[in-house]
Amino acid sequence: MSEQTIYQAKDFKSAQLVRWCPGCGDFGVLSNLHKAMSQLGIAPHQTVVISGIGCSSRLTYYMNTYGFHTIHGRGAAIATGTKVANPQLSVWLATGDGDCLAIGGNHFIHAVRRNVDINILLMNNKIYGLTKGQYSPTSARGFVSKSSPYGTVEDPFRPAELTIGSRGTFFARTIDSDMKNSPEVMAAAAKHSGTSVVEIILNCVIFNDGINESITNRENRADKTIFLRHGEKMIYGKENNKGIVQDGFNLKAVTIGENGYTLNDILVHDAATSDPTLHLKLSLMDGDTLPVALGVIRDVEAPVYDRDMENQIEEVKNQTKVRNLNEFLKSGDTWEIK
Amino acid sequence: MVNFSIFIFQVFKLNLIFAGDLLRHKEHKLNKPRIYYFFMIQEIKVIERENVVIRFSGDSGDGMQLAGAIFSNLSAERGNYITTFPDYPAEIRAPHGTLSGVSGFQMQLGAKEVFTPGDKADVLIAMNPAALKVNAQFLKPDSVVIIDQDSFQKEDMGKAMFTTDDPFKELGITFVQVVAAPITQLCKEGLSGIADQKQAIRSRNIFALGLVCWLFNRPLQSAEKFLSEKFKKKPDILKANLLILQAGFNYGHNIHASVSTYRIETTPHKKGIYTDVNGNKATAYGLIAAAEKAGLPLFLGSYPITPATDIMQELAARKDLGVKVMQTEDEIAGICTAIGASFAGNLAATSTSGPGLALKSEAIGLAVMAEIPLVVVDVQRAGPSTGMPTKSEQTDLMQALYGRNGESPAMVMAAISPTDCFDSAFQASKIALEHMTPVILLTDGYIANGSSAWRIPDLDDYPEIKPPYVTPDMQNKWTPYLRNSENNVRYWAIPGTEGFTHRIGGLEKDYASGAISTDPLNHQKMVNARQVKIDKIADCIPLQEVWGDEDADVLVLGWGGTYGHLSEAVAKVRRAGGKVAFTHFRYIQPLPKNTAEIMRKYKKVLVIEQNTGQFAGYLRSKIGGFNPYQFNRIKGQPFLVSRLVEEINDLINSK
Asked: Mean pLDDT for each 10-residue chunk of chain B (655 residues)?
């Protein structure tokens, strides 16, 4: 890839002053996205970033690409239209948990179902930040917020489950502050043909500070997360001696060399298998007894909407002689007045 | 929204030329340097069918006499004049399904007295191929034929001596609408577990009756009353028939079956190749024509909704012309995919009806704010809420003008006839692209489904479409909201163009730099700039014309799809010696520049519209001191020309 890299991260940076709260996880996402884009070899003017409404959706203004900051929840539909209208463009959607999964839930699942070739960066901080602290559709049951002073009595969406339930072909996860792995994950999303969903575990310093602390802090991270790579064994831990095995219908975390488990027992990650069962299981690991899965969890090939639409048009055009409206109209039932 | 298990073929219709002294319009006054949208308004004649002829036909055992008799009786009960004619076969029981076994019941219903059962049918119910064959000769052009598709199987076709599998083609019937309903199957399903198959087959006539009740807006209570009397001693059969009656009615309701009892005729007076087109198809073709002229791909994002769905369907079928159509997950995604496509540089449109327009309003606001080209077609139907989906009204005008948050000006125009939908869609696209604005094009269910003869246009006769693209020399000086001082339109930089990366969106932007701004003076400036941009479109549209007696005291004024009825009424008044002037609007926002001048010239202005006075109110708000007379009807039905004539004459004669 390196020889194709003719752009630098700064080429994707706009002159606009970045106006998130100091310490916001969005800064990390922005910086990682600049880096990821510089690796793709796609020019800024061939790149479009679309967003809805919310803190994360401001990202569009900080990109030196074509950008469209739209209305709440509709980014996925607008990005879909942009990509279908011009499949040559590299189209990204910057969105948050409220924008994407509450008001925009319908557009999200249908974009994923159609497998339009867009890249969705889902910045999930489990809170409404721009409206100052209401619970979101990814907030945990019982979460106390300004709009749930006694705790919520509803279960959250899990973005991976929703993506896979919508027949998603690509799901990856990364952490806002992971400057090492995030560009790689985002670039993988861009290279995938079809809708890519990257869930970014994000910290809101003002309204939801520290909710991801148990898995993201440097001390815990190695034991609480696992970075998956296609074709590699699922090994993690400070000592690199823990792994994931299949245990009946479930997954289990084991220590290699303990209880009779050897390296051979550890599962090898297959992101490309079309059966989503294990991908779902992996993506639902929650950091309790099993580590939270990071990296590309699912990346499978499937028909791509925008490409298929163009192909269909070409096929139909090849079967007809009419080349314009006038010819088409005259090919139907007509009569002449002389 | 609608799931069809039937197909309605819209086939080539006869081009009827009606004699009569049509209203002759003066030629448009062209002011060439300023006005570059110019189209001929066609002469139109509306045929109101005050009478309708219906013929029930089937095998002699099919009970068509009963169905026909009940329908004519309940129509009489509702105040129609009727004449009926039962047409029995010679044999009491001829062989099943044969030509000699066809039994019919014909009736003529009229708003005024009718003296005959009618010569030819507007609606034919043919329960089998034999019935179709025997009655083909009695069909009017443009009639509706309802068939039980389950009884048009190979064996049935053979009994009726058909030699091919397309009875319509074989009979040379090429100008009717066919409603092919699976009546036998639906009767069996409807009575499953309630009555046996034999009874189900016997109830087919009642299904047809229920369907016809739907078509003609007849409440089922009267039919139920007649059936209850007829079958009072056979409660099981009554129960089955009542269920099936409702099933037939529901079927019509669910498929939104509709019968036009009106026909709009255009008088062709120009040489050329003609075809028959309805308003929805003409709208679709107008968009394609504009895309061809602009040299841009056409994108439509839409969601099925009566009565606008045909626009999407026609465009979806035009892959041969490269049209991209997305049937989206909802109305909002319909417009939002179109906005995305517009941002990407396509000619983008969305089509809908009133409830869908309501859902799209926030996104229209985005298009206003982002200043991108977009065509929003609203095929108006009776509201509010779900209202009467198959019935037509002009009640979305205020929604189109003002149904958004903030100061959100958009161009609003209205097509005036089925064929004008083509020109209007073309112009809406041209204005959207050249003025970087959403344009809301109002049509209505009446002109959308109404059809007329149409001269296939030569696009060389249509004006060029030239969007205000950025040019290479603008690089480094250009900002997203930099405007052309002449028309206040911003320049369009399409993604993929090097040197013009930029960000736009729903947030207010700085007039000069295009960066986000909450500066109070800047907001005032941008609000004004967006309004002025729309106002200046008035420089590019034709002046409003007045037809008829320009020096009359009374000016009849309408807009949109009522043109045919209004012009016909004005012509009738004038033929009878009345003095009246007439003007009909298709440009609503902005209004043609001479609008106020015209309004002030007439002593009495009568605004006629199918709402409670939305256009009249709008004109009042735009023209100080303007106080028109109004005639408003909101029945979901086209105007009666005779009623309009009466209203106009009353005003002429009033002191």
From this structure: 27 24 30 34 54 87 88 79 70 75 83 69 92 89 87 91 90 82 93 88 93 86 89 92 94 75 52 86 98 98 96 97 98 98 98 98 98 98 93 96 98 95 98 98 90 86 97 94 97 97 97 96 98 98 95 97 90 94 97 97 97 98 96 89 93 92
What residues of B are in contact with residue A107 (Cβ under 8 Å)? 329, 332-333, 336
The C-alpha of A312 sits at a distance from chain B's nearest C-alpha, in angstroms, of 8
Distance (Å) from the C-alpha of residue A176 to the closest C-alpha of chain B? 24
Using DSSP's 3-state secondary structure scheme, residue B278 falls into strand
Alpha helices in B439-515 (DSSP H): 445-449
Asked if the Cβ–Cβ distance from A14 to B503 is below 8 Å, we say yes
The string of pLDDT tens digits covering residues A106-157 is 999 999 999 999 999 999 999 999 999 999 999 999 999 999 999 999 999 9
Q: Is A222 helix (H, G, I), strand (E, B) or coil?
A: helix
Chain A residues in contact with B339 by the CB 8 A cut-off are: 70, 78, 81
The rounded distance, in Å, linking the Cα atoms of A312 and B643 is 52
Strand segments, DSSP code E, in B409-561 are: 411-414, 438-444, 451-455, 503-505, 547-548, 554-559
Are B503 and A71 a contacting pair at CB < 8 A?
Answer: no
What pLDDT shows up at residue B138? Answer: 85
Residue A134 structure tokens: 């209401």
Q: How is B165-217 classified by DSSP, letter by letter? A: S-HHHHHT--S-EEEEE-HHHHHHHHTTTTS-HHHHHHTHHHHHHHHHHHHTT
- Helix, strand or coil, per DSSP, at residue B489: coil
> Cβ–Cβ of B319/A317 closer than 8 Å?
yes
Q: What digits encode the pLDDT tens for the residues B255-296?
A: 877 665 444 444 455 788 888 788 999 999 999 999 999 999
> What letter does residue A45 receive in the DSSP assignment?
G
**pTM for this entry:** 0.82
Contacts of B299 in chain A (CB under 8 A): 81, 84-85
Any alpha helices (H) in chain A, and if so which ranges? 25-40, 75-85, 97-98, 105-114, 159-165, 182-191, 213-216, 218-224, 277-283, 305-318, 325-330
Q: Which of A68, A120, A308, A327 to mutate to test the interface with B (most CBs of B within 10 A)?
A: A68
pLDDT per residue as tens digits for the range B187-217: 999 998 888 888 888 999 999 999 998 888 7
Short-list A120, A137, A143, A146, CA closest to A59? A120
- What's the number of CA atoms in the CB half-sphere (13 Å) around residue B646? 6
CA distance B347 to chain A (A): 9
Asked if B324's CB is within 8 angstroms of A80's CB, the reply is no
Closest CB to B338 among A64, A71, A81 = A81
Cβ–Cβ < 8 Å for A268, A233: yes
Among A43, A78, A106, beta carbon nearest to B340:
A78
Q: Which residues of A43-54 are buried (b: 16+ CB within 10 A; e: fewer)?
A: bbbbbbbbbbbb
Q: How confident is the model at residue A191 (pLDDT cuts 50, 70, 90)?
A: very high
Give the span between the Cα atoms of A296 and A291, in whole angstroms. 15
pLDDT of residue B37: 35
CA distance A311 to chain B (A): 10
Residues 310-339 of B with CB under 8 A from A: 318-322, 324, 326, 328-330, 332-333, 336-339
B320 to A317: CB separation less than 8 angstroms, yes or no: yes
Which parts of B78-193 fold into alpha helices (H)? 129-135, 154-159, 167-171, 183-190
Cβ contact A85–B344 (<8 Å): yes
The residues pairing with B45 across neighbouring beta strands, listed in sequence order, are B265
Cβ neighbour number for residue A289 with a 10 Å cutoff = 9
Burial class of B460 by CB neighbour count within 10 A (0 to 12, 13 to 18, 19+): exposed
